[in-house]
Amino acid sequence: MTVYAYAESTSRAQGERLAFHLAHTSRAPLQGLVRVEDVASGRGVLDAEFDGPLWNLDIPAEWASSLYRAVFTSGEDSGEDGGEVYFAVRAARPSSPILLSIPFPTWQAYNRAGIPGESLYWSEEPTRAARVSFDRPGGGPPPERWEEGMIRWLGPAGYRVDYCSGLDLHEGGELLSGYRLLVVNGHDEYWSAGMRDAVEEFVRRGGNLAVFSGNTCWWQFRLEDGGRTMVCHRDAVADPLSAVEPGLTTVEWSGSPVDRPENAMIGVSFRRGAGTWGPYMQRMHEESYVVRFPEHWAFAGTGLGEGDKFGQGAIGYETDACDFAEVDGVPLATGRDGTPPSFVILATADLRHWHRYGQGGMATMGVMRLGAGTVFNAATVNWGNALHAPAVDRITRNVLDRLSAPIRGWEVIGTADSPRALAVLGTTLYGVGRDGSLLAREVCGQNLRWRHVGTAPGVIALAVPREATVTRPIGLYGLTEEGRLVLREPDGSWTALGQAPPGADGLATTNGVMFASTGETLWHLPAEGGSWTPVDTAPGVVALTAANGRLYAVDAAGRVRTRLPLAAAEPWTDLCDAGGATVLTAHAGRLIGTAPDLPLSWRPCAPDPGPVPPGITPAGDRSEPRERG
């Protein structure tokens, strides 16, 4: 006799009760044994008996927050599998900065796949269901167990994490507010508007998101019947809401009339990803990622170099990607598909040959900023089942360690080409090479190569005004070794504008005013012209720049200091560590720095995260969540 079972919820908190509904097809009494196992540890945590169609589990407060499996067997079982039900136990109060979401909506979407009217699959079969209920047996992980590898790896790897159901993210703002990092793992294909809204708000407010998943957030679904029915028509014509509330139509997130590409939240999409299905699924084990940005923090400690392959087998049967162009051998996201301009490509896998096996495309691993938060995306289904590989293990640790703590310091955006001067004009970052060449590249987080665009003979410092004045047009201003102030003309030549203070080696401009530093003295040149005058001390300044009505300097102690651009004495305020930079510029709220043999890096023009002011509870800082049903 087989017992069929389902739970009234996909999750409950420690100390709460979860009811299970049971049935069988025999006339014998409905009674037997139930064993509850912690999937993460593989250990049994409870053996009990059931008698009748309802069994209640009072979840002990001491049970770890985790994914659990309840297995029901009858006394008449003769080797036949009993019913199994998966559920998550949430922490009553956050016990970790990391929250791991279990993709129960995707599991339920595939439940009874191929049975007419019983499943949302297969995708284009006219007999597929448009509505499926959580009040039925099944809805557990697929046979491939995409999520299980990471779930079993976390504990032995030294990570304590809290768990939730993906359904808990629907209107889950309060739940998320207790955590710093949300982890999405495996195959998390189905998202409701409530799930997406809550996660995007969490990240924009300063929480972080790590996506170790592929085909992520591909279909939109709706919840009905108190959250127990999952609706996904996959077709705008059949969905009655398409004419009433188009944004909630249950089609692909990137499709019309929703037109809300998942790229905006996670950087990539299955739209440009790849898939290998059915008898060809094993092809995924032949593929590897190729490193495209080895200096990035995600690759720290891996020993990988540019062009190296890693993670064979981590490329799952479905991958996500963004549209990108190769620029001097470096991939750069175009943004044409909705990927934000902050997205940085770390690794790629060319899977266009998969067009014979399901869907040809790419896989693009990357990281981006979204509001005040950071999103990392491995962009593949099988990442968690390749954690035995040293490089995959280390990258995962780098991501979890960095994104589960306050993010401090500088982030590498280029190689160690060490220009001796930096400035931004428009959207172009200019540098002066050690040989006097003028270099340029786009201002972005991608590791683009410097291009030679001219010469800058003798220039040792650069500055660019934000706005033109009567006497000073917008352009590249330079300070030369001979102590002259120069301006680069549109034809690439340099015009001498006059002398600079003796020994000056730092230059900045703000509100039409020029400032120069000579190591111990700050000098001022009025907007209307005139002569340089000393206005303040500048103790040990080795680099000077300006942005947003403020001066920034690197001092001899390796600190970034800042002050208002007044033509008078003004205290220098300590801002942050300079990260070894001895060359500095600023643009759009970021400091950009480098030094001989130091990669080009940037960071916000803001202090590192510190103690939270009284009365302020930003996303990612723990708070006591409300009780959830």
From TrEMBL:
InterPro entries registered for this protein in UniProt: Class_I_gatase-like, DMFA2_C, WD40/YVTN_repeat-like_dom_sf
Ranges for domain N,N-dimethylformamidase beta subunit-like C-terminal: 55-388
Biased composition (Pro residues): 606-616
Residue numbers spanned by region Disordered: 603-629
Superkingdom field: Bacteria
Name of this chain's protein: N,N-dimethylformamidase beta subunit-like C-terminal domain-containing protein
Organism whose genome encodes this protein: Planobispora takensis
